[in-house]
Amino acid sequence: MRKHPAVTSQEHTAERHEGRRILLVDDEESVLFAMQQYFQLRGHEVHRAADADSAQRLLDELSFAWVVTDLHLTPAREGNGIEVARKARNVGVERVVLLTAHRTVAIDQEAALAGIDRVIAKPVRLPELEALLAGAEPVQ
Prior knowledge:
single chain, 140 residues, alpha/beta, five-stranded parallel sheet, 6 helices
């Protein structure tokens, strides 16, 4: 059987693992919707939060394997993705990824101190994100 050239080995790796419980955190509804659809179609249980407070409540209530959070969440007074990531690490989340449209060395350093596995600049390719979460080759 001939493999379609658009399908990468990362996509195959990501599709072979079991479904996981994922928390997606972003204040942009369209981003949450797209990520939710992608991960649900691949058999994952997806929970969403549009702000840091909601995300932290979900982290208190449920056990998650993976957390993907945007850095900048509104309203800013309620916290940001770094705070969500710290909470995720404190409750034992396996993988934490931070998304940002404006990646800097300072953000990378703060993320490392918070225990974030990877900072990814937006826009992100969802198959690559899933591969990273599943433990495949990291996205740079």
